[in-house]
């Protein structure tokens, strides 16, 4: 029997919950406690009523999420937020959130695992946030169109499609950067140019990033916010199964983005 406190202590140390900076609303670590031992772990990118119902159906009593319950800051616990919480507490389900730490982690992180999935080998960091590199970068020699097609195949496994800025015929990718989720921004484009990268693979980004990238000779491949953040939570759940023998389930809930 493994208690929540044991698992939480292990994950806090493994992921750097206390030491790695994040947005205030991310609230990394245990967001909701429970009363019993953990008997089954569920993992999902987000938390929603649909996901909470799936956790209950899976008979899990610990939910690992990437985007936790407090994104918008302090909010009244009414409506959908109340319903989610009521169901979680009624079924004694604990919630543990891990955001930027799970993008940045060297073995369980979204970015290192996305690189591996796309056949790329990271050699450094990318997408600096305060004191951490959230993303990864590396070198290769591959047709950019092929890289797009790999990202698209991956996105389709998670209910999405990859899109990209203009890819000139015969263009090759030699220096790439990856940042999952909302990875394309004015800051990451500037950082990419400073580092001499030619191709970025991100989850999503605003329209102006596509315009600026094309002007700068960068190709940005947008593989989907949801798809690019499925890997970390799943890896954490599998890690808990391997470490404590607790069965785990990934709850797929594609957002279409
Ligand atoms: Zn995200």
Description:
With 257 residues, this protein is an alpha/beta fold. The chain contains 10 helices and 13 strands. The strands form 3 sheets. A 6-stranded mixed β-sheet has the order 7-8-10-11-12-9, with helices on both faces. The protein is elongated, with a radius of gyration of 19 Å. The termini are far apart. Bound molecules: zinc ion (ZN). Zinc ion (ZN) binds at residues 67, 181, 225, 229.
Largest sheet: spatial strand order: 7-8-10-11-12-9
Q: β content, as a range? A: 15-25%
Bound molecules: zinc ion
How widely separated are the two ends?
A: 38 Å
Number of E-type strands: 13
> What is the arithmetic mean of pLDDT?
96
Query: Radius of gyration, Cα only, in angstroms?
Result: 19 Å
Q: Which stretches are low in confidence, meaning pLDDT under 50 for 5 or more residues running?
A: none
The percent of residues in helical segments reads 25-40%
Secondary-structure blueprint of this entry?
Elements: E1 2-3, H1 4-15, E2 29-32, E3 37-38, E4 41-44, H2 49-57, E5 62-65, H3 79-90, E6 94-97, H4 100-104, H5 110-117, E7 124-129, E8 132-143, H6 144-157, E9 163-164, E10 172-179, H7 186-194, E11 199-202, H8 207-216, E12 219-222, H9 225-228, H10 230-244, E13 248-250
Parallel strand pairs: 4-5, 4-13, 5-6, 10-11, 11-12
Antiparallel strand pairs: 1-3, 2-6, 7-8, 8-10, 9-12
Helix pairs in contact: 2-3, 5-10
Zinc ion binds next to loops.
